[in-house]
Amino acid sequence: MKGNIVVGQSGGPTAVINSSVAGVYAAAKKLGVKKVYGMVHGIQGFLQDNLCDLDEYLADETGVELLKRTPSAFLGSCRFKMPKIEGHEEVYEKVFEIMEKHDIECLFYAGGNDSMDTVKMLSDYAAAHNKPQRFMGVPKTIDNDLPITDHCPGYGSAAKYIAASLKEIIRDNESFGVEKPTVCLVEIMGRHAGWLTAAAALAKGEDCSGVDAIYLPEVTFDVDKFMAKVKDLAATKHSVVIAVSEGVSLADGRFVCELADADKKVDAFGHKQLSGTAAYLASLVAAETGLKTRAVEFSTLQRAATHLASLTDINEAFQVGYDAVVAAEEGKTGMMITLDRNGDDPYQCGTSAYDIHAIANVERPVPAEWITEDGCGLNEGYEKYARPLIMGELQPLFVNGLPRHLVRK
Fold this sequence. Notes:
Number of domains: 2
Strand content: 15-25%
CATH topology of the largest domain: Rossmann fold
Number of helices: 13
CATH architecture of the largest domain: 3-Layer(aba) Sandwich
Shape: elongated
CATH class of the largest domain: Alpha Beta
Largest sheet: 7 strands, mixed
Distance between the termini: 28 Å
Radius of gyration: 22 Å
Number of strands: 13
Order of helices and strands: EHEHEHHHEHEHEHEHEHEHHEEHEE
C-alpha cells in the first residue's frame, strides 16, 4: 500500500480485541506502510478527526506484547450507528474527506454485527461513488454470533472466564447447604444468541460436577417449568447452580428481566439494555420455596478478564488483524476476515476473506442440535466445538502485584 491506514474498535470490548490492533499494526509495518493511525473511539471519533499515531505505542516489541495483555479497547470504542446513506451523504463524505486529509488508503474496523454494518455501508458508498479507499472488517465479539466464521475472536477468552468462574462458584456453593440447598443463579451476557451462556457447560470435569441447568435465548423460557426444575433439583441436591442468559425471553417475546423492570432503556442501535434476569429469578425462587438464593451477574467481567485470556484466542485475534491488512494489500475491500476450522484433532484453524454483505446484521444462534432435549443443557457436540477455543494462557506482566496494561495518553 502506498498510503497510510487507520484501525478502529467498536462495540463491547473483549479481552483480545487489542491483539487484533497489534496484528493490523504488525502486518502494516511489514508491508512498509508509513503511518498506522488509530481511531480514538471508533468511527464516531474518526468523524471528529480524532486520531492517534500507533508508532507512539507500538514501535517496539514491548508495546506490542503489553497491548496483547491489555483488556478493553485500547483505542476507545463507541456504539455509533452510521445513518442510512440516502439523505445523509454529508456524513459519508466527511469520512472520505478525513481519509484524504491523512492520506489513508484503507480503514480497518474491529467489531461485531453492527460494526460490520458500518464496513458494509462505507464500502458500498465508496463503490457507488468511485472512491479508491478500501474497507475491511476484523471480527470481534464475545457473543460469537457472526455468521460464516467458525467462531469470533473474543469468545474463547470469555468462555474460559465463564467456565473457570463457574467452577469456583460451584465449589463455593457446595460448601454450604447441609440441611437446605442454596440456589445460585448466574447471569451471563447474550441477547439473542446463547453462546456465552453455553460456555457454562465447559465447567464440568473430573473435579467439578458442573452447573445444574443452562438456559439460552434460543429456547423459549417457561417460568413454571423453570420453577419445577429448581424444586426437583433442591429435593435431591445440597447445592444448585444455574446459568441463565440475560436475554432469555417468554413466549410472548418479553425478556424475563422485563418482568422486574418493563421500562428498559435502549442504546443507539435500538437494543434494550438487559440486566437483572438472575436477580428476578432468585427473588422468585426465594418467594416460592423459602430457600436461600444468590444472584451473580458477570456483566463486564466476562469480557475484560485478560488475566485469564485464552492463548488460542489471543493468537487468532492477532491473525485476523494481520490477515485483514494482507487482504487489503491484495486489493480486497468490503470483506471480513473469517476463521475457518480445518481440524479438531489436533485443532487447526486458518483464515479467509468473505463478502461483508453476507455477514453484516446477521446473527448466528447456538445450533439446535447442540441443545439437550429438555432445553436446559448442552451436549458433547458443543464441547467438542468450544473446548479448543479456551486452550492456552498468556501470563500478564505483573508490576506491584497487579497486571500492567498499555494505556493511551
